[in-house]
Amino acid sequence: MSQPKSNKASVGSVQCENTTLNLLKANDFVAKAIKDKLLPHNILVLNVCSSPGSGKTTLMQETGKRLKNKLKLGVLVGDPETERDAIRIREAGIDCLQIVTGGMCHIEAQMILQALDHFDYKDLDILFIENVGNLVCPAAFDLGEDYRITLIATTEGDDKPKKYPRMFLTSELMVVSKSDLLPHVPFSIDAVTKDAREINPDLDVISISSLNGEGLDQWCNWLQEKVKQKKSQ
Known about the structure:
Elements: E1 13-16, E2 19-22, H1 25-38, E3 44-49, H2 56-67, E4 73-79, H3 84-91, E5 95-100, H4 109-116, E6 126-130, E7 147-153, H5 160-163, H6 165-169, E8 173-177, H7 189-199, E9 204-207, H8 216-231
Helix pairs in contact: 1-4, 2-3
């Protein structure tokens, strides 16, 4: 008789009768190496995930504008091709390194570990990992982060949490982006929050617009509080 499933299965594992088979053991091993490498520096590591076009890079730009004089920020940004996002982020005054995945639909821990050898991270307060736009594969890969953040844009529809439950199950914060478009799209903040919290009752939710600034103070306060907690450890 199979054992009851945990509400939050560990990343990369599946319950099979009485045995848990770790399908991503190599990635988890490297993720642990990343944590060990960053541990002496008390850097808050955030894995930012979303579908393509949800506004991750624009949020990084706006975050830089608001916090670059308060916190030392760095971004490792993943894309299958080009350095366009890294260029945009650097223009906002944030140190950024592009990880070109060569067609892969997610970032793996070994990519982050290699990137750290080419990135000045030791004095950072926050290291953002802007993942490849995808709500499926990135959910399975631990990158050594302290928190996973998932953006969902109002233009995507409010049914995504139930369609892609693992991403929301393994996230600590859901950011509803492009809130300025709410009057023009069939999207309900209440509905997406209800669905997401049925999957993950502990999920924090912040609604933002990088265009008009709505919710960005709350977002920045969340970041600063998490940095404070990290430094106190």
